[in-house]
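Researcher: Next sequence.
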Amino acid sequence: MTFFAGSIAEVTQTLRLDHLPTPFLYVDLDRMNSNIDVMAAAARGLGVHLRPHAKTHKVPEIARLQIAAGATGITVAKVSEAEVFADAGIDDLFVAYQVVAPAQLERLARLARSVPLRCAVDSREGAELLSRAATDAGLELSVMLEIDLGIGRTGVRAGVPACELAQRVTDLPSLKLIGVYGFRGFRGFAEGAESRETWGRAEGEALASAAEDLRSMGLPIVEVSAGSTPTALPAAGVRGVTEIRPGQYLFGCANVVAQGVMRADEVALFARATVISRADDRVIVDAGSKTLSTDESWKPGLGFGYLASDPSTRVVSVWEEHGVLGLGESAGGLRVGDRVSIVPNHVCTAVNLHDRLVGVHDDRIEAVWKIAARGRIQ
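Model: Next structure:
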């Protein structure tokens, strides 16, 4: 049995899940490993590279499991996250975020000296800042051009704006434009697996088309990177897409289940909580916003998560240290002192609230991982 963080003395003397004080997050290792293997096999079958977004778990040991299963590298959101994974021996990183601040640019360039690294750009100004930082550091940075996929976030519009920016990146010293990427997610107004398939394919088609526009200018675009967990596989089925970047697939959460991406019995991450108060019309647990987050449900009105043993029992409201359960058909017998497992709405935000993840097999603690990249926002 291996432990990576937390109180070793405490954990080694409390080998079962319900011996640990609540609240905490735990991972069903069998489900997680299955989810990792299934996505890796799907990517291989579709002929695309898999570069998982590590913002979901923030744990180098888990990134190693993903790479061992076939991932070619990982995606991160910030330079500080990239530093954590590089320090842990994870190379081939994609910082899928616009880095423009001088201190972060200096750190990005320093990191690029030691590990293979890609960075993102979506503006002329950003490209010029990257070029200056790379030139000052005496190295060449590999650049991915972010394409605006219509969600109102970052990215350059496809067509003339993207072509003009790509040419500017190519003309700047110390930058090598290698590909395009984008993020579209899955919007709440789309319903059902068929519309998610359509939504994801549209993402892949938009990126592949943008890449062809740049190739028609003579630019050597080799990477076309698409896909969050809901859209990764539909996008991967589009001719021209070379890579997908899902994050939540290894754990799942209430929103991923609501989107039809995973079944409830495939969810691998849970918040363990204790019933601390009970009245006729309410059950209160010790998992509130500091455990589950306040991220809303993908389907409005479904609260902040659900009970794993009874999905009709939902967390209907949260305070910082309290969660209120709206009881479903099978939860009426809950009493003070009972322990429950809750599936949070958004796994990425929940993980970022905790210092460790407990890995469990058949109720037996197999691992405790430090969430090494939590809180890394710079």
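Model: The domain at 2-27+262-370 is CATH 2.40.37.20 (Lyase, Ornithine Decarboxylase; Chain A, domain 1). The chain has twelve helices and 18 strands.
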